[in-house]
Amino acid sequence: MIVKVYLSCCGGDKVVDLVKEAVRLSGISAAIETVTDFKEVAKDGIMSTPAIKINDRIVASGRMPKLQDLVTLLSKAAEDK
Amino acid sequence: MSGENTGLNLKSFRIILYGLLWYLIYIQLDYFSNWFTYEFIGFAQESHLGGAIAFFIADAPKVLILLVVITFIVGIIRTFLSPERIRTLLSGKGELAGNILAALAGIPTPFCSCSAIPLFLGFVQSGIPIGVAMAFLISCPVVNEVALALLFGIYGWKVAGLYALLGMAKAVVGGLVIARLHPERFLEEWVARLLDNNPKGEASKEDTGLFPLTWEDRIADGTQAVREILAGVWHYLVGGIALGAMIYGYMPVEFVSQYMGKETWWNVPLAVLLGIPLYASAVGVIPIIQAFIIKGAALGTTLAFMMSVIGISIPELLMLRKVVKLPLIKIFVGIVALGSVVVGYIFNILI
Fold it and tell me: What is the ipTM of this complex?
């Protein structure tokens, strides 16, 4: 599973930590990629950061989701596969 | 379930309590600062230092309270206005309606350039006309909730309303003018390619279906917005108020009214030119212009300066340059500068 985290120049290390923690809690093996270059962010269709994409689904755009929700989303995505 | 509800009720109760308390403090500030400076410490009424201190004591908390309240409210409003929703609102509208909506959309969106340019890109990518997207970019930093709240708090609704109206008019006219100049040719190649790959203007969407936002989330977002703005702008705020206090205390009235008054026609374009290379947040500029105005500077001249300072920033231009070619950047700067001059003159004539 691929989890992409999109950040801006305004920072957002917190969201990376959040995702890492969620992946750890869900016990799923997932590759976490961070994207900071705004060209790459735009190419993936993200309009506001911080944003999180699990596989091909944007689960958060312009906000930090709750840790608990993120864990559920990750488990759901793992089931769907 | 009921536990969650009491939590929310308690939160709303606390918010209302804070609101009331702050309102009471807010309306007493001028009185308190005068009492503190002239009676408690005992400065003479005409003392320069006393004037500066009184200004600082009244102004810093006033600006801070307004800032926190408005950021909190707009932070909550913003949870209803995701970029995706704004984009849907803007697309497929007539040209004029699209421009007006784009100018309006500039109010609640954060003014930081690293969020404005990706929004601009997202708009263009989904087929919104470049003119409309530029109208958003012109409006976004200038007509924002922070500037409007501070203007409202310090000068009242007439000045704030006129500022909002003229700022948005500038964005709408700017968008219409840019649309006439065939701006497609100014897009950078990689942006144009993004467009070619997406001929139907399809837009990717956030998928929150599983966890719709609750009121508690929205309030948390509002609180987060306050935290961010306080962390991001407090140095502007302190610097601006300190500089404002200096100007208030020491700048000679004759100098200010002679060169910055209404009668001097050339001070408006000069103020705008000076403002172009400078960049600060509205939070920092407003205390400075407030001090100048108390000293006899014309409102239009100082607001034109402010529009030019906050409306054009070098970091934003550098980022925009990655998306569009130089001619469009020149046009953008030209329109913002010219627009600020016009707004300045209108203010000087009307108020």
Answer: 0.81
